[in-house]
């Protein structure tokens, strides 16, 4: 299944009539250029699941740089312009989707 289909499924599985009114998923661009992904984990089975941060490359010199972490109840990722699929895969594999 494609990463976007899996992300949609994860999101739909969280929607319970309440969660989606306060939480969600954000995908945005960076000006260096690149992407950010933020996924709210509060009130999900992932909110207390350990995650080892990932750091790859250097945002100043490497187009394939990637940084992922869990902080303050969110999965947060940032990466180079070609790394959006990698960021989604990091989240989805960790989430079990």
Describe the structure.
This protein has 97 residues and is of the alpha+beta class. It has one domain (3-95). The chain is 29% helix and 30% strand. It has a 5-stranded antiparallel beta sheet with strand order 1-2-5-4-3, covered by helices on one side. Helix 1 packs across helix 3 (84-95). It is globular, with a radius of gyration of 13 Å. The model has no long low-confidence stretch (mean pLDDT 96).
List the helices and strands and how they pair.
Elements: H1 3-14, H2 19-22, E1 25-30, E2 34-40, E3 54-56, E4 66-71, E5 74-80, H3 84-95
Antiparallel strand pairs: 1-2, 2-5, 3-4, 4-5
Helix pairs in contact: 1-3
Structure, briefly:
This protein is an alpha+beta fold. It has three helices and five strands.
Give the domain tally.
1
Number of helices: 3
Number of strand segments: 5
Radius of gyration: 13 Å
Q: Could you state the oligomeric state of the chains shown? A: single chain
Structural class by SSE content: alpha+beta
Mean pLDDT: 96
Give the helices and strands as they follow along the chain: HHEEEEEH
Distance separating the two termini: 10 Å
- The unreliable regions are none
Q: Largest beta sheet, briefly?
A: 5 strands, antiparallel
The global form is: globular
Classify the beta-strand content into a percent band: 25-35%
List the main descriptive attributes of the protein structure presented here.
97 residues, alpha+beta, single chain, 3 helices, globular, five-stranded antiparallel β-sheet, 29% helix
